[in-house]
Amino acid sequence: MHTLCARGTMKPEINAAVGFLSRFLRVKGHVNDRQVQTFSQSLQDILAEQYKHHWFPDRPCKGSGYRCIRINHKMDPLVWQAGQRIGLTIQQLYLLLPSELTLWVDPFEVSYRIGEDGSICVLYESQPGPGGMPATATTSSPSGNSGAVNPMVDSHISCKEELMVLGRTSPSKGYNMMTVSS
């Protein structure tokens, strides 16, 4: 696949992932708006460069492990690189970001899990259109609010809302409930 085409099709997914991580910096404080903006732009550039030869809209699962952003006992090197650009130490990044985070950035979908046993929630999803470009897209914030990027798309409901719609008072054994508080 041509690099420029691949870079163009991954922009909404990268924006969703970067926006998600940047909100943690903004919410937990100690990082000013200019630093958050620089972090966001740096991480967008880093991810686009990193993913350009590993982005396959015709086979979205191919390269998924390569595009996974992981923070646990080890800081993801791409997030660390963007953090360094705004003067954050690795210790500061660990304080600002969840201690256990997995973020999957795939063509047409960005999902995350906080904690090893947390539920997987979708941040962004779209339907493939002609030429591998997203035809329709839906975004969801970590708080469960969703917003259609294209007004013709139904809103995506959050993991928590989905459980409520199904009428469950507790998740089945196959699911783990995750709550986020600030």
Question: What would you note in describing this structure?
Answer:
There is one protein chain. The protein starts with a helix and ends in a 17-residue tail after the last helix. It contains five helices and six strands. Helix 1 (3-28) runs antiparallel to helix 2 and helix 2 (33-51) runs antiparallel to helix 3. The chain is an alpha+beta fold and 182 residues long. The protein has a domain at 8-124: Anti-proliferative protein, N-terminal domain (Actin, Chain A, domain 4, Alpha-Beta Complex), CATH 3.90.640. The model is unreliable at 1-8 and 143-182 (pLDDT under 50).
Per the CATH scheme, the topology name of one domain is Actin, Chain A, domain 4
Report strand order across the widest sheet: 1-2-3-4-5-6
The count of DSSP E runs of length 2 or more, i.e. the number of strands, is: 6
Provide the helix percentage: 25-40%
Q: Name the structural class.
A: alpha+beta
State the distance separating the first and last CA atoms: 42 Å
Largest sheet: 6 strands, antiparallel
> What is the count of helical runs?
5
CATH architecture of one domain: Alpha-Beta Complex
How do the helices and strands follow one another from N- to C-terminus?
HHEHHEEEEEH
User: Outline, from the CA principal axes?
Assistant: globular
Mean pLDDT: 77
Which regions contain 5 or more consecutive residues with pLDDT less than 50? Answer: 1-8, 143-182
Determine and state the CATH class of one domain: Alpha Beta
CATH homology group of one domain: Anti-proliferative protein, N-terminal domain
Pfam family, one: BTG
Function: Anti-proliferative protein.
Family: Belongs to the BTG family.
InterPro entries: Anti_prolifrtn (IPR002087), BTG (IPR033332), BTG-like_sf (IPR036054)
